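Risk register update: the risk of archive-format incompatibility is retired. Evidence:
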Amino acid sequence: MSRIGKKSINIPGGVTVDVTAHGTVTVKGPKGTLVQDVNPDIQVKVENNEIVVARPTDSKRHKSIHGLYRSLINNMVIGVSEGYKKDLELVGVGYKASNQGQILELNLGYSHNIYFALPEEVSLKTETPKGKNPIITLESIDKELIGQVAAKIKSLRKVEPYKGKGVRFIGEQVRRKAGKTAGKK
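Archived output:
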């Protein structure tokens, strides 16, 4: 058995899980509703306030998707009950972030400002504490979507290894390189 796939998923209070005959899993909770289509070969059952994911055979294909769907369903349960949050910081002189609704305006040292429209499922907050780097806070119930949005924002100005400037997660370790040194004669 897959180590991840064989673990059952506990359903917290206030969360309901519905599994249709066609393999669609719907998870409803206090923060919202998420829907995931599951491969017809994988069986998803709700028993005793737990979700059990099972595979029919030990073929390589079934092994590979067994843990995948268990993780996706677990992420849905956590998302509708607690939610996900990602914090990004802009490191660099003159880097700024502001928002109007779902539109993020970034000044990342280019000759123009970058306007980035976020999906409705992701809530956005920007702040610039005095004497510190600007911070972008993203919150959502969908782990996959918030990860894609954060990766797209990071790709607008990747962290460079010499001075460490760019967009990064708070607490992310950046591997720094030594710059050129003056040659001695």
